[in-house]
Amino acid sequence: MPASKVLLFSGGLDSTTLLWDLRPDVKCLLFHYGQRHVRELENAVALCQRVEVEFEIVNLTAIHSLIAKGSQAGPDPVPLGHYADESMKLTVVPNRNMIMLSVAIGHAVAIGAKGVYTAVHAGDHAIYPDCRPDFIYAMNRAAQIGNEWTPVEVFAPYVNLTKAEIVQHGHYLGVPYRYTWSCYQGLDLHCKRCGTCVERQEAFALAGVPDPTKYEEDKSEASSAS
Amino acid sequence: MPASKVLLFSGGLDSTTLLWDLRPDVKCLLFHYGQRHVRELENAVALCQRVEVEFEIVNLTAIHSLIAKGSQAGPDPVPLGHYADESMKLTVVPNRNMIMLSVAIGHAVAIGAKGVYTAVHAGDHAIYPDCRPDFIYAMNRAAQIGNEWTPVEVFAPYVNLTKAEIVQHGHYLGVPYRYTWSCYQGLDLHCKRCGTCVERQEAFALAGVPDPTKYEEDKSEASSAS
Questions:
Q1: To probe the interface with B, which of A32, A66, A105, A107 has the most B CB atoms within 10 Å?
Q2: pTM for the whole thing?
């Protein structure tokens, strides 16, 4: 029997917490939309296999050059440091959430699922307008109207939570955060320095939850100390 | 200088008429989402080249199996005869308009275009809920909110016109309808019998515009008469 819920799943802190909330009656869609995310994708696959939920990789690489600014010549450099407005704009793929939601809604109709779930959260509102409640509301409207015979609802249960609040909630659920992946760099371990790594550390610190992440920087410090 | 308008273009009666309304400051996106449409796609490319507007093929074949019901084993049979409710539902790819609009909106942001245009029309309202004004309105809302820094509007100027009214308008504009393609079959000429062919003939008849289409059936009648 197909799952009744479809989740946009990246294997990061937020969508992994939501996976824990929704399992086992959920199918994960993993979006492959550009080279930067291969490491992230492998990790997301491993997580789905660990939780034993159905998943499918959605290959959007064919349209990546259409939507990513200046991406035809390869990816932009990963901005380091805290997510400031200007550096974060570099990481924006225009309309990405709408594209992923549209495909997930179509898939939900095709398999008879009733809900599409996304782990967008309040921490992203300032930077990504397509993570805000009114965007989710408009997409939900469009999904309802456009699929009148087989309506699908769009849910964003964390839309008003901060990343720290999500981590607190997930810690309570027992989410094994050591298996999640946030980093934008393609290293073996988290780099600790890119925007998502900085945000990740901050979320654990603010949540008062021990950070189980293994960082590349700590490894080299440890090996130089030994 | 990139075009300021992006058009969802299929090379059929409706979107070709809209191309004539918008040219030359328009870029056409041609969606390749399944095998049935290769003939349609070739025709759309030829039309863009004839009008000398920029175009790009958006390859969505990688996600076709995700969204098309039962399509994993190949396309459904093409329903023949007039578009009746039940046979038409066979031709529905779930959420197709939302997916195409989402990609087009993302592309518009990437190239700095201000509007995305679709030729959905009143003749489709009964069958395709994602061709109705309230769907377009919801997508336009989502596009505005989700791309706050670089807003893109969604326009559907024919949303309250019938196909016959579009043909009347296009006839006035001088659209060379003989180069447009509607048929769902993969023949050299229009089959005259599938749902879109029946609708095409009806549009010309109701518009009082001579139908310039060459039909497969007429060709075989002509050759058997000779």
A1: A66
A2: 0.89
